[in-house]
Design a protein that fits this description.
The structure holds two protein chains of two kinds. Chain A has two helices and seven strands. By secondary structure, chain A is of the alpha+beta class. In chain A, strands 2-1-7-4-5 form a five-stranded mixed sheet, with no helix packed on it. A two-stranded antiparallel sheet of chain A has the order 3-6. Chain B contains eight helices and twelve strands. A seven-stranded mixed sheet of chain B has the order 8-7-6-9-10-12-11, sandwiched between helices. In chain B, strands 2-1-5-3-4 form a five-stranded mixed sheet, with helices on one face. The relative contact order of chain B is 0.11. The chains are: A alpha+beta, B alpha/beta. Chains A and B meet through strand 4 and strand 7 of A and helix 4, helix 7 and strand 12 of B.
Chain lengths: 87, 270
C-alpha cells in the first residue's frame, strides 16, 4: 500500500514539474532534464558528432569554435540539425 | 479567329490551311504538330480552327533566345518568368543532388547558376547523377555546362572546379541569393551551411537523408528558420546495404529545386 502511495506522490510530483514547465531544456522540440553545460558537452550527451551539425541556440546560429565555451541552460531552446551522408 | 503558332498568338480573319501557315511562319519546318498530334507533311490541307495550337519544328535547329523566352513565358506566365529569370542561385556539389538540381533550374530558366565541384565524372556516378557515358572522365562542372547548353544556351553559368570550404564558400557564392548544399559528406554539409548562415544574409537549402529505397513519402522539406531549409528524411545515410539510388536522390533533388523556386516566388513556407 505504501509503495502505491509513494508511486502516486512521485507521479504527482512529475506532473507538477511538467505543469510548472520552464526548467527543461528544449532540444529539437523535446524536453531534456539537462543542467547547464557547454554545447560540446550537450552534443556528446546526445551522442552526436559535433563536426556534422548546425546549432541554433534561442534562434541564433552558433559558430563551431564556440561549442566548447558557449553554455546552454535550462529554459534554453535549442535546434540541432545533424547531417547524415549522401548526396 | 485566334490560334497559336509556336506559342505565339495569331489573329486571323480568313481561314488558313496548315500548309499556308507552314509557308507563312516556318517554310523549312519538317515536323508539323497540330494540337499535340504530328501531321503528315504530304497532307496539310486541313483548315485551322479557332483555338488550335500549331507547332512548326525544323529538326536539329538551334533555338534563338526569343524562341526560348517565348516558350518559357507561355508555360510559366510573365510574372513567374521574370522573377525566375532574374534569380542567381548557387549549387555546392554536382553529385546526385547537385547535377539534377542544376538541370532542373536550367529548365525553368533561372538567370544565372553558380556551380562548384572539384570532381570528375566516374562510372559509379551513372546510377543517379545527371551524366552519361560520354561524360566519363570530364570535370563535373564542364559536363553540366555542356548539358545546360543543350537545354537553354542562354542561362549564365559561373563554374568553380575546386573544393569548397569555409574559407572560399562566401566568395564563390557572393552573387547568389540562395545557396544549395548538395554535398555528400556530412562534415562538408555542416561546414557550408554554417558558413553561409554565419557570414552572409543569404538563404540556404540543405539536404540530409535520401539513401536506399525507403518510402518516397519520408523525404520532406523542412523550414528550420527563415534562412535555412532542409530536405530529406533526416536519417537514412549512404552506407553498405543502403546505397544512394536514383529514385530517392531525385525526389530529394526535386524538393530542393522546388523549395528554391518557392523562395524565388516569395513563398516563405515549405
Amino acid at each position: 500500500m505504501d509503495i502505491v502511495r509513494l508511486a502516486g506522490f512521485a507521479s504527482l510530483f512529475f506532473v507538477l514539474k511538467i505543469l510548472k514547465g520552464g526548467d527543461f531544456m528544449i532540444i529539437n522540440g523535446r524536453k531534456y532534464d539537462f543542467s547547464s553545460m557547454t554545447i560540446s558537452e550537450m552534443v556528446r550527451e546526445l551522442g552526436i558528432n559535433e563536426d556534422r551539425i548546425v546549432v541554433e541556440l534561442n534562434y541564433e546560429i552558433i559558430k563551431k569554435e564556440e561549442f566548447k565555451i558557449r553554455i546552454v541552460n535550462k529554459e534554453d531552446k535549442i535546434e540541432i540539425v545533424s547531417f547524415v551522408g549522401g548526396g | 479567329m485566334q490560334f497559336k503558332v509556336n506559342e505565339k498568338i495569331v489573329n486571323s480573319r480568313i481561314n488558313l490551311s496548315l500548309s499556308e501557315i507552314k509557308e507563312q511562319y516556318k517554310k523549312e519546318a519538317d515536323v508539323v504538330i497540330l494540337n499535340g498530334y504530328p501531321m503528315d507533311l504530304d497532307n496539310l490541307n486541313r483548315t485551322i480552327k479557332d483555338g488550335d495550337k500549331i507547332s512548326l519544328i525544323k529538326k536539329g535547329e538551334r533555338l534563338d533566345k526569343n524562341e526560348i523566352e517565348k516558350v518559357l513565358l507561355a508555360r510559366h506566365s510573365p510574372e513567374v518568368h521574370s522573377k525566375v529569370k532574374n534569380a542567381i542561385i548557387g549549387i555546392g556539389g554536382l553529385g546526385g543532388l547537385g547535377s539534377n538540381i542544376a538541370i532542373m533550374l536550367a529548365r525553368i530558366g533561372i538567370g544565372k547558376i553558380v556551380i562548384a565541384d572539384y570532381d570528375i565524372v566516374e562510372p559509379s556516378n551513372l546510377n543517379r547523377q545527371n551524366y552519361a557515358i560520354s561524360h566519363l572522365g570530364m570535370k563535373k562542372t564542364e559536363a553540366i555546362i555542356e548539358q545546360i547548353k543543350e537545354i537553354n544556351p542562354f542561362i549564365k553559368i559561373e563554374d568553380y572546379c575546386k573544393e569548397i570550404d569555409e574559407n572560399n564558400a562566401v566568395d564563390i557564392f557572393e552573387e547568389c541569393s540562395i545557396v544549395i548544399e548538395a554535398f555528400d559528406r556530412p562534415e562538408a554539409k555542416a561546414n557550408l551551411v554554417n558558413s553561409i548562415l554565419l557570414n552572409t544574409d543569404k538563404r540556404v537549402i540543405a539536404s540530409s537523408g535520401m539513401a536506399g529505397y525507403f518510402s518516397s513519402n519520408s523525404i520532406m522539406s523542412k523550414r528550420i528558420n527563415s534562412r535555412f531549409f532542409l530536405c530529406g528524411d533526416g536519417e537514412n545515410e549512404a552506407k553498405i546495404g543502403s546505397g544512394l539510388m536514383a529514385p530517392r536522390v531525385l525526389i530529394c533533388a526535386g524538393h530542393m529545386a522546388n523549395q528554391t523556386l518557392r523562395l524565388i516566388m516569395g513563398e516563405e513556407v515549405v
